[in-house]
Amino acid sequence: MPLRCVVLDDYPHVATELADWSPVEATVEVVSLREHLGDDELAAALATADIVVTLRERVAFPASLLARLPRLKLLIASGMRNSVIDYAAARAHGVTVCGTASSSTPPVELTWALLLGLARGIVEEANSLRDGGPWQRTVGADLHGRTLGLLGLGRIGSRVAQVGLAFGMRVTAWSEHLTKERADAVGVQLAASKEELLATADFVSVHLALGDRTRGLLGPAELALLKPTAYLINTSRAAIVDQDALLAVLHEGRIAGAGLDVFDTEPLPAGHPLRTAPRLLATPHLGYVSRANYATYYGQAVENIRAYLAGSPVRQLP
Question: Cys-Cys with 53: which of 7, 40, 152, 180 at CB 3.0–4.6 Å?
């Protein structure tokens, strides 16, 4: 009887298309789930799974869930960092956890897709053109000569900075431990404080890891510092920006707009207020969703399965 491998949250149904699963097809049956499942549904769907492939941090694996999965022996997460897996519980239940490589290029590109889409009113203008509405409804915001403020200057933030510089923008950056030497190396200006960055930037983009120090980093007081003409982009983690405070400034027109790819609850419920918020360009967490990245995720998932079955697991986490 083959081992059962369940691929979670394969929304576009490409897990078996973008990777060659033939090396394990004789011993592993692959089942792809396209719908996101709640806790009880998830436990039931995985009760007979020997192997689970999960994408990014879409599904949490706490001790309570792992205890309900008696057959699970191998858990594969895309990327080499995952904050929603209880590694100690996995070890206690005899579950090996492995990761995959992941490119930072797709989230950099999506950040700029959101920023440019907002600045030039792309969605509004495209919809008006298709619907026979007014010709030219908006006046675009310029990038050249404007200030791009980056919260975080790591792998993704530094590459976002390079694009901003290519557009002729003045780029500033801030994070709690960012040094002038690091900022100079990227070619950007170190902001004296978070508050200064927020008050002076025309575009603010969030590229910080979520942790105790960054959770709720942008609340009502911080969002109040933004210019009325400023745009806020968050492709990092939803909890860094206070959702209720952001909704308030959008509805009250206290900023020009926001671009979001991350949400407190995913998938976003049908009646969620962010679905109808004004001045908001939102995408359904597409940051790492690209053909090349998915080919890596699923291709290396197959490699991980082969290595595990051979008794020599690779890319083990944490």
Answer: 7
